[in-house]
Amino acid sequence: MINMILIVGIGGFLGSVFRMFCINVISKFFPYSISFGTLFVNILGSFAIGLCFSYAQNKGLSPLLKNFISTGFLGAFTTFSTFSYENLMLLQNGDYFNFFLNIILNVALCLLAVWLGMIIFK
Question: Binding site, residues?
Fold first, then answer.
């Protein structure tokens, strides 16, 4: 059990650092009202979790590696709490267009990314 906790913790550390890096880089290129950095991270994380679970289901993946990737790295990498906060800020600022646009883009594109990730190993 201690091995699993350490593996998930290491994955979480790496995922959160990579998230910070990605958001900072994307935000420099797309400094708009909605956070395209968060959108990018959510899409990439959704695609990666689709890949991970599809690969684990079809090819097999050790529980340790599966938890490192999905619970640790991707759990820290994807930013649904940040997504929620950013949407609340848009809503409180009365920016309804960007509020709805951000929700629609994140949900639709992340669902698409999970599906694409899953079909790769079928």
Answer: 75, 78
Query: Which residues fall in the annotated binding site for Na(+)?
Result: 75, 78
Q: What is the pLDDT along the chain (122 residues), one digit of tens a residue?
A: 999 999 999 999 999 999 999 999 999 999 888 889 999 999 999 999 888 888 888 888 899 999 999 899 999 999 787 888 899 999 999 999 999 999 999 999 999 999 999 999 87
Q: Residue ranges per domain, the chain?
A: 2-119
**What's the rounded Cα separation, in Å, for the pair 87 and 90?**
5
At 101 the three-state DSSP class reads helix
